[in-house]
Amino acid sequence: MSNNTQSKKESALIAENGPWAAVGEHPNAITNRFYTYERVQEIVAFIQNIVPAKPEVAIICGSGLGGLAELVVDKVVIPYADIPNFPRSTVAGHRSNLVFGILNGISVVCMQGRFHPYEGYTTAACAFPVRVMQMLGAHTLIVTCAAGGVNKSYRVGDIMLIKDHINFPSMAGNNPLIGHNDERFGKKIRPRFPPVGHAYDRQYASQMKQVAAKHNIELREGVYCALGGPCYETIAEINLLRVLGIDAVGMSIVHEVTLGAHCGLRMLGLALITNKCLFEYDSTIEAVHEDVIRISELKANELQQLILDFVGGIKTNKT
Ligand SMILES: O=P(O)(O)O[C@H]1O[C@H](CO)[C@@H](O)[C@H]1O
């Protein structure tokens, strides 16, 4: 079709349907029209055919943190590539498997590899597996990630309990819930305007602090902020984040926690500080993803210990 014919057709459409016919749909709205409740149910049915047991706890493994899934016993591994309409992880340090089994006595599903917006996925596509895991039976979501330390007192290797987050993409109009609100996601009616002020469960946070104290692991507690990536931050950006009271920065988690809040999951977040962010113009150290993975793998043991013990303490939910 020539450009002229195309624009004549568009003009006719607008004349007939009004100016909104010319407005492109938000990419998240398109994603959400694809990942309908019924399509999520289809994915869930496919998985249940392979793994009939219901997971209670869902865990998303961050960069270099997929080793946690290796601790699962009676394991069933489903590669993302085998699941219809499931995205693939394209980043180093992220495998592409759903791992089912038992972790310290509780039935879990681990995402060994997550999806990030900078890979080209919409935030809605990055987060939709949270709905899959909730529909499979999970009542709890643990998100883990690698992050840069913005708080000047943080050291490489510190583990930060996420108290709250700042969702910059959402503040700029990119929220994974944009589009039709299907009230069927979750056990209750899910509202158009879900509250996220208490997305990170306070009781879980205090249980995690007790676990850390028991293991003599120093646990930081702070605010995580997600930027779009894939660039690491400029020095001016880091100084801005610090003024805003942000403790750690990354490129993930917030869209997952948003959908988790929408479908009623209890959530806990842990960030491993893999690098100190740049504050000074005369500093020569730059963040490098290879270092992020190296530090994650090096410090994974402590994080795994915390999660193992924590999940062991979660009361089995038989409802
Ligand atoms: O948040 P995770 O997936 O742990 O990964 C973090 O590490 C990568 C950058 O090195 C980014 O993807 C950032 O988000």
TrEMBL record:
This is Purine nucleoside phosphorylase. GO terms for biological process: nucleoside metabolic process. InterPro entries: Nucleoside_phosphorylase_d, Nucleoside_phosphorylase_sf, Pur_Nuc_Pase_Ino/Guo-sp, Purine_phosphorylase. Belongs to the PNP/MTAP phosphorylase family. Keywords: Glycosyltransferase, Transferase. It is an enzyme of class 2 (transferase). One of its GO terms (molecular function) is purine-nucleoside phosphorylase activity. Phosphate binds at S63, H94, R114, F115, H116, A146, S252. One of its GO terms (cellular component) is cytoplasm. A purine D-ribonucleoside binds at E233, N275. It holds the Pfam family PNP_UDP_1. The keyword Aminoacyl-tRNA synthetase does not apply. It comes from the Eukaryota. The keyword Amino-acid biosynthesis does not apply. Its EC number is 2.4.2.1. Residues 57-311 form the Nucleoside phosphorylase domain. The purine nucleoside phosphorylases catalyze the phosphorolytic breakdown of the N-glycosidic bond in the beta-(deoxy)ribonucleoside molecules, with the formation of the corresponding free purine bases and pentose-1-phosphate. Pathway: Purine metabolism; purine nucleoside salvage. It catalyses: 2'-deoxyguanosine + phosphate = 2-deoxy-alpha-D-ribose 1-phosphate + guanine; inosine + phosphate = alpha-D-ribose 1-phosphate + hypoxanthine; 2'-deoxyinosine + phosphate = 2-deoxy-alpha-D-ribose 1-phosphate + hypoxanthine; guanosine + phosphate = alpha-D-ribose 1-phosphate + guanine.
